[in-house]
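Subject: for your reference before the review

Hello V.,

The reviewers asked for a structural picture of the protein, and I figured it would be easier to keep everything in one thread rather than splitting it across files. Below is the amino acid sequence we used in the manuscript, unchanged from the supplementary table.
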Amino acid sequence: MTFNNNRRFTRQTFDILSSSLKIDRKGLLDRIEYEIPFDNIHNKKKIQTQINNNLVITGLFFFVFSFLFLLGTAEELTVIFLSIGVIFVLTAFMNRKKTVTIATYTGDEITLYFNNKNKEDVVEFSDKIIEASNNYLMKKYGKIDRALPVEQQIDNLQFLRNREIITENHYEALKDELLGREGKSAIGFGQ
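And here is what came back from the structure prediction:
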């Protein structure tokens, strides 16, 4: 599945492959293409809107100076500084960065940009990335094969549980299946 995502001069193309996510990011002066294996993708996302605090602080700085000139006789400077302050604050709010971010276990982030019109589509695609990653990990680590060493398979099931891909109950059911138990063991002494 391919998804195109743009923000100003940055164009991104995301491809969900069989075992990884391929990202092609083109900026104004650069281009980078890379893949992130599903093993490295976290299954949580963060939706946020960020305002450039530096522009807001600069705008407030000009507001303060405009009021200082208001106390004096320089009305022209008051109007100029007040106008500059308004421009900085408006620019900060107009240039808000709206993102959906999916963390990775390598410290990188998968960042998708959205606006009010495409927010639903971007959030839906981020869910598909997480779902594809979880399905891949479930197929890779969730198989039960009694011919393979039991300890390694239990470690794989614990890995899935720790990554919150399976619930505690699902983990116990798969573990019981692996150990050949019909039902869940009683608390206390094992069967």
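For the response letter, the relevant points are probably these. Residues 185-191 have pLDDT under 50 and may be disordered. Helices lie at 53-71, 75-94, 119-141, 150-162, 168-179.

Happy to draft the paragraph if you're swamped.

O.
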